[in-house]
């Protein structure tokens, strides 16, 4: 379809909450293809890196590889405090052995993996696993430790695991900025007028869900990874906040700081050009 817009986001509760009204046509966005693609964020990172989606949720780490082709949107981002990835291990794990340990990560382009590399550059024995397979891999001895994200942050203790480091707290102490985890991007070739309309539609979709919190519940539960109602509420409360409606200058500064540190450490390409569409295309 000429002028059609493909959309991808994760099945995590914060994303299905955010995009509920758009996905169901309650908020209009001309040209939007339905149904959207729901898949894990690392798959979305790869699709965006190959310029396969018009609009997508991606990791802020991945943004450092695609900013030439995609513009960062002000709405829809996952930033905050107290929401960072956790490095966990069995209770008898000796942290002294961390640099030689087998550590599971939820994807090479996830922000979690980037934070781990910034925190401990000597951790090189990294094993990529789907985020929901990391805790089982630790418990069965397939890996020695693991970096957990999403709902696993709320359940790891039930599996007899301990927290080694909260990378969100580490980031906040280091920079004083909120932690940028994920963001929504749109292809730059769409142009500033279309991208502005996309930003407004995403913000309107979020506002609808916030004003009608009971309505998206069935959709969220349909895609949640076996989460209880309480865990879903925790997840949304943690990852949906004022930065999601509009990241503002503080949110943008946090993303620039993350990408700047990553580029300095040669973990992503040198960063050139603006992140936002209007900075360059108007």
Structural summary, described in words:
- It comes from Syntrophotalea acetylenivorans.
- Its EC number is 4.1.99.29.
- Pfam families: VitK2_biosynth.
- It catalyses: cyclic dehypoxanthinylfutalosinate = 1,4-dihydroxy-6-naphthoate + dihydroxyacetone.
- The chain has helices at 13-23, 41-49, 60-66, 111-119, 134-139, 167-175, 192-211, 217-223, 229-239, 242-245, 248-264, 277-281; strands at residues 7-9, 37-38, 55-59, 70-72, 78-80, 86-90, 103-105, 126-128, 145-148, 161-166, 179-187.
- The chain is of the alpha/beta class.
- The protein folds into two domains: 7-79 and 180-281, D-Maltodextrin-Binding Protein, domain 2 (3-Layer(aba) Sandwich), CATH 3.40.190.10; 86-175, D-Maltodextrin-Binding Protein, domain 2.
- Strands 1, 2, 3, 4, 5 and 11 form a six-stranded mixed sheet that branches. A five-stranded mixed sheet has the order 8-7-9-6-10.
- Helix 3 (60-66) packs across helix 11.
- The longest helix is centred in the last third of the chain and has 20 residues, at 192-211.
- It starts with 6 loop residues before the first strand and ends with a helix.
In one word, what is the shape?
globular
* SSE arrangement, N to C: EHEHEHEEEEHEHEEHEHHHHHH
The helix/strand class is: alpha/beta
Mean pLDDT: 93
The profile of the biggest β sheet is: 6 strands, mixed
Low-confidence stretches: none
Number of strands: 11
* CATH level-two architecture of the largest domain: 3-Layer(aba) Sandwich
Q: Helical stretch count?
A: 12
In the CATH hierarchy, the third-tier topology of the largest domain is known as D-Maltodextrin-Binding Protein, domain 2
Q: Please state roughly what percent of the residues sit in beta strands, choosing from under 5%, 5-15%, 15-25%, 25-35%, 35-45% or over 45%.
A: 15-25%
Report the span from N to C terminus: 27 Å
* CATH superfamily (homologous) name of the largest domain: Periplasmic binding protein-like II
Taken together, the total number of domains comes to 2
**CATH class annotation of the largest domain:** Alpha Beta
Helix content: 40-55%
Cα radius of gyration in angstroms: 18 Å
